[in-house]
Amino acid sequence: MKILMNVLLASCAILPFAVSANAADNIPPAPSTSSGFYVRGDVGGSYLNWSTATSPWAFTGGGGIGYQIDPNFRTDLTWDWAGNYVSAPGSSLNTSVILGNVYYDWKNESPVTPYLGVGVGYGWEWDKNNVVPNNNGIAVGLAAGVSYDMTNNLALDVGYHFHDILSSGVSVPEHQATVGMRVKF
85: number of CA atoms within 13 Å, CB side? Predict the structure, then answer.
């Protein structure tokens, strides 16, 4: 987990240098040939806000497909998984959510675009060892981050994601820091 957090921190530290190097070129970007559709993939670290967890940190990964409606609005359908939290002695808890999301991108003249997003869908929490009860239900999500357009059709994304499964079971919020790519078609 320590290596993953170091990679995420290094990615965040390098981003300003990449932006300033691109800004120094002063070359106008080529017109976008994107149809609006994109696919995305993310990896990162996740923290499960569970008071009895002995190991609340886990790896997370996910992907999705989306559509850029206009320069400021986009939407996507994503699947995120995080696993092997130790929520009680002998447990191995996993979470998974499928969300429909809407984002607002603050487009500007630079290749760096901050964004905020909200989502709703369905989520599951399950213990591979059946130590803690399984839980599933309506899921909600929030997202905030920054994307960096490396080319007209490829963007690096660094973000924060919040997920919560709203069900009759225990509500266990999940906080994720991710880095990923968006490929536009």
Answer: 28
* Residue range 156-177, pLDDT digits in tens: 999 999 999 987 766 779 999 9
Write down the architecture of domain 2-23+37-184 according to CATH: Beta Barrel (2.40)
DSSP 24: H
What is the Cα 7 distance to its own chain's centre? 15
> Which H/E stretch holds residue 120?
strand 112-127
Q: Residue 64 corresponds to which tokens in the numbers above? A: 């999705």
Phi, psi of 8 (to 5 degrees): -65, -45
Evaluate whether 44 touches 73 at the Cβ level (below 8 Å): no
For β-strands 73-85 and 57-68, DSSP reports them as antiparallel
Distance CA 41, CA 75 (A): 15
Distance CA 179, CA 185 (A): 20
43-52, 60-69, 175-184: which has the minimum mean pLDDT?
A: 43-52
- The C-alpha atoms of residue 23 and residue 34 are separated, in whole angstroms, by 22
Q: Count CA atoms closer than 13 A to 18's CA, side-chain side.
A: 15
Give the pTM. 0.80
Scanning the structure block, which residue is given the tokens 């998984």? 81
Q: What torsion do the CA atoms of 98, 162, 84, 155 make, to the nearest 10 degrees?
A: 70
Sequence-distant (6+) residues with CB within 8 A of 93 are 48, 83, 84, 85, 86, 87, 125, 126, 127, 132
